[in-house]
């Protein structure tokens, strides 16, 4: 990875993944593993969680984007991730709007600051 940046990984519904793939994020690592997972109706929660955990240990991934409704399915795994890299960002999907109250990473970040920090 010398001289290269880190990748963005995506765990999302078909529309989300297609949009990011059209934007150029699709990559395969040296083991021919993609940096995305398209979650469909028949995708098991175990497969989603295993893919998320595999993205966490890959040294070529710097950011993991995950649809918020999918993040809810593996909330315990997301809450257990305490490292800053890869950063985990919950994003909305076409069918499910973003709800800040469900975003555990945002709640954790808000807990780091007080109102006086912004004065």
Outline the structure in words.
The protein is of the alpha/beta class. It contains five helices and four strands. Strands 2-1-3-4 form a four-stranded parallel sheet, sandwiched between helices. β1, α1 and β2 form a beta-alpha-beta unit. It is globular and about 45 Å long. The protein starts with 6 loop residues before the first strand and ends in a 9-residue tail after the last helix. The mean pLDDT is 87.
The tally of beta strands, per DSSP, is 4
What would you call the shape? globular
What is the straight-line distance between the termini?
A: 41 Å
Structural class: alpha/beta
Residue fraction in strands:
15-25%
Could you spell the SSE succession in H and E letters? EHEHEHHEH
pLDDT under 50 segments (min length 5)?
none
Number of helical segments with 4 or more residues:
5
Query: Order of strands across the widest beta sheet?
Result: 2-1-3-4
Radius of gyration: 15 Å
Q: What does this entry show, briefly?
A:
The protein is an alpha/beta fold and 119 residues long. Helix content is 33%, strand content 18%.
Spell out the blueprint of helices and strands.
Elements: E1 7-12, H1 14-22, E2 36-38, H2 45-57, E3 61-67, H3 68-71, H4 75-80, E4 87-91, H5 104-110
Label this structure with key terms.
single chain, 4-stranded parallel beta sheet, 5 helices, alpha/beta, 119 residues
């Amino acid at each position: 990875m010398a001289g290269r940046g880190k990748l963005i990984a995506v765990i999302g519904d078909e529309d989300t993944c297609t949009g990011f793939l059209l934007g150029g994020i699709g990559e395969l690592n040296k083991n021919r593993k993609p940096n995305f997972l398209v979650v469909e109706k028949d995708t098991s929660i175990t497969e989603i969680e295993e893919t998320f955990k595999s993205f966490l240990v890959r040294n070529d991934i710097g950011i993991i984007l995950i649809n918020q409704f999918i993040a809810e399915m593996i909330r315990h795994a997301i809450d257990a991730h305490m490292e800053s890299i890869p950063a985990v960002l919950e994003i909305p999907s076409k069918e499910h709007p973003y709800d800040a109250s469900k975003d555990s990473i945002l709640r954790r970040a808000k807990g780091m600051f007080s109102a006086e920090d912004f004065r």
